[in-house]
Design a protein that fits this description.
alpha+beta; outer membrane lipoprotein receptor (LolB), chain A
Length: about 200
Amino acid sequence: MGNTAHPARKAIALACLLSLAGTGDAAAESCPAPRDIHVASVDRAFVQERHIEGMSRPLVSHGRLRAEGDEIVWHMQRPFDVKTVITPAGISESVDGGPLRPSGAGAAELGAGVARSAAALMRGQWDALSSLFNVSAPSTLESGEWEVLLTPLNARMRQAVGDIVVTGCADVERIAVGGDKGSERHVITFAKPDEVQ
């Protein structure tokens, strides 16, 4: 009796594993194509890791990306409070809750470029991105998520930023910027739309 029970248990266990595998495949198939995602406004918390050559651990910051109409707000909240506001009129910054001031060129412009690109990605504005990047066809990862590679068309931007890898499913979940040949790399992970951080 003991010997006949084991094959039955094995069959049940195998059936359970197959049903779980089937559930995973169904979840993978439920990821819409990136070009099918369209969002009017964005309000998402993020964690940004800045990987710098020679440092064993990344620098980590927390913040929030908001995009509504023509205004994009990239607000790093920890460890420093820096709010970058991007509008058609220009780029301004507020430090530690102070007044917004027009921003200079350089790092702020690069940060604004990342914020603009992230907002366009989150909204599903792929056509707008194609004027700045060569946008690859999406590939499907083993997890079922899609991945898209953005390569800057401008040589200076390509040298400064490198490639951008975007990963997601129902929306954009992760953006990895740069990282060629041990150079500085940024990885931005977004909270789910309904998660409050």
